Amino acid sequence: EFSLEDCNKLTYTEMVCKETMRLFPVGPIIGRRATADVRLDENHIIPQNAQCIISFYQLHRDPDVWGPNADRFDPENFLPEKADQRHPYSFLPFSAGSRNCLGYRYAWLPMKIMLAYLARSYRLKTSLTMDQLTLQNYGIIILRIAQGCQVTVEQREGSKLGR
């Protein structure tokens, strides 16, 4: 059993979950309307009421934000000292602001608990490398791995789950 206090101690597990959501956002894009003129730089302005598409997929892989290895899976991207150096809106797995996903707080807790239980009881392996993964849209806004779930599961010695 995991208590809320136990979940708060799963720091590296949370970093793994965040890095997974960074590279593989479930919803890779979102639409928004500009509520005021937004100056991007001296030559570009998004006018008030313009409809905008924000690509979380692109934002989360921007080398200007995430460094030269932005496409590499690295949970240490979420070490506190690294996260503190980034803009708060550089990581938006559930959007942000007044129109963010209502279930985002609920989503993190079961994600961390499930990953902790699985990692404690099983070894999860895949032969696919990051370079081999192909992502595709499912429907309009859901992102998934085109090759499907290619994972081998081995029970750890002494594990009581699955028996």
From TrEMBL:
Q: Which GO terms describe its molecular function?
A: heme binding; iron ion binding; monooxygenase activity; oxidoreductase activity, acting on paired donors, with incorporation or reduction of molecular oxygen
An example of a Gene Ontology cellular component annotation for this protein is: endoplasmic reticulum membrane
Do the record's keywords include Metal-binding? yes
Task: Give the species this sequence originates from.
Answer: Culex pipiens (House mosquito)
Function of the protein: May be involved in the metabolism of insect hormones and in the breakdown of synthetic insecticides.
- What this protein is called in its record is Probable cytochrome P450 313a2
Keywords, A to Z, come to:
Endoplasmic reticulum, Heme, Iron, Membrane, Metal-binding, Microsome, Monooxygenase, Oxidoreductase
The record's annotation in SUPFAM superfamilies points to: Cytochrome P450 (SSF48264)
| Annotated localization | Endoplasmic reticulum membrane; Microsome membrane
Concerning InterPro entries, the annotation shows: Cyt_P450, Cyt_P450_CS, Cyt_P450_sf, Cytochrome_P450_Monoox
Entry keyword Transmembrane? no
**Where does this protein chiefly localize?**
endoplasmic reticulum
Which superkingdom is the protein from?
Answer: Eukaryota
In what way does this protein cross or attach to the membrane?
A: Peripheral membrane protein
